[in-house]
Design a protein that fits this description.
The structure holds 2 protein chains of 2 kinds. Chain A is an all-beta fold. Chain A has strands at about 5, 10-15, 20, 25, 30-40, 45-50, 55-60, 60-65, 75, 85-95, 100, 105-110. Chain A has no helices and 12 strands. In chain A, the strands form 3 sheets. In chain A, strands 2, 5, 6, 10, 11 and 12 form a 6-stranded mixed beta sheet that branches. In chain A, strands 3-9-8-7 form a 4-stranded antiparallel beta sheet, with no helix packed on it. The relative contact order of chain A is 0.34. Helices cover about 0% and strands about 50% of the residues of chain B. The termini of chain B are far apart. Classes of the chains: A mainly beta, B mainly beta. At the A-B interface, strand 5, strand 6, strand 10 and strand 11 of A face strand 4, strand 5, strand 9 and strand 10 of B.
């Protein structure tokens, strides 16, 4: 079945460091891929998405490229800020439904 | 444009009781999905409603049910509450017409504590 695997957290970085959070997926067909972010006490916010192979999603300095050959959708940011501290979820959308399948989430902690 | 709203935000119940949670989608969205978030199981899909019909269902017992009204607002109900039902319940809305390519927009969630 469809599934998403994310790197374990927490990821601890100093401000202005480079961020990578790994995400790989298993899916039949051609799913859309998403990164959502959850701040403490809040729901999920869409960070970026990609709907087909080689698409690059980007938002607020974050980027991720849909790599079909490696079934990956790694999240990157060149220079993190303290305000980026949150939990990041990689997800895929079943091609035939609106059901989202999430990874376990990766907590990012950024220190000044 | 108003976002997805959920009420109540917090709820405390005791085992054996039942609970109803409400979700109002973004205006124009006809699909509402519900997810359960727990530390142990992560985010799990409960069900999706589109145009007042349940279109997809996750792997949860029959104690979990839902419905959708003609204005697309949705409710989910959990009967005979168990301690393990303590969770953050999130709803998400989308237009629901483009299969898996659409973005789902999430509400702030209802945090349910079962004692």
């Amino acid at each position: 079945g469809n599934s998403v695997t994310q790197m374990e957290g927490p990821v601890t970085l100093s401000e202005e460091a480079f961020l990578t959070i790994n995400c790989t997926y298993t899916a039949t067909g051609y799913p859309s891929l998403f990164w959502y972010v959850q701040y403490p006490g809040e729901g999920l916010q869409l960070l970026l998405k990609a709907t087909k192979a080689d698409d690059k999603g980007s938002n607020k300095g974050f980027e991720a490229t849909y790599r079909k050959e490696t079934t990956s959708f790694h999240l990157e940011k060149g220079s993190v800020q303290v305000s980026d501290s949150a939990v990041y979820f990689c997800a895929l959308s079943d091609p035939n439904t609106d059901k989202l399948i999430f990874g376990t989430g990766t907590r990012l902690q950024v220190f000044p | 444009k108003a976002g997805v709203t959920q009420t109540p935000r917090y709820l405390i119940k005791t085992r054996g009781q039942q609970v109803t949670l409400s979700c109002s989608p973004i205006s124009g969205h006809r699909s509402v999905s519900w997810y359960q978030q727990t530390p142990g199981q992560g985010l799990q899909f409960l069900f999706e409603y589109f145009s007042e019909t349940q279109r997809n269902k996750g792997n949860f017992p029959g104690r979990f049910s839902g419905r959708q009204f003609s204005n697309s607002r949705s409710e989910m109900n959990v009967s005979t509450l168990e301690l393990g039902d303590s969770a953050l319940y999130l709803c998400a809305s989308s237009f629901g017409t483009s299969g898996g390519q659409e973005t789902q927009y999430f509400g702030p969630g209802t945090r349910l504590l079962v004692l």
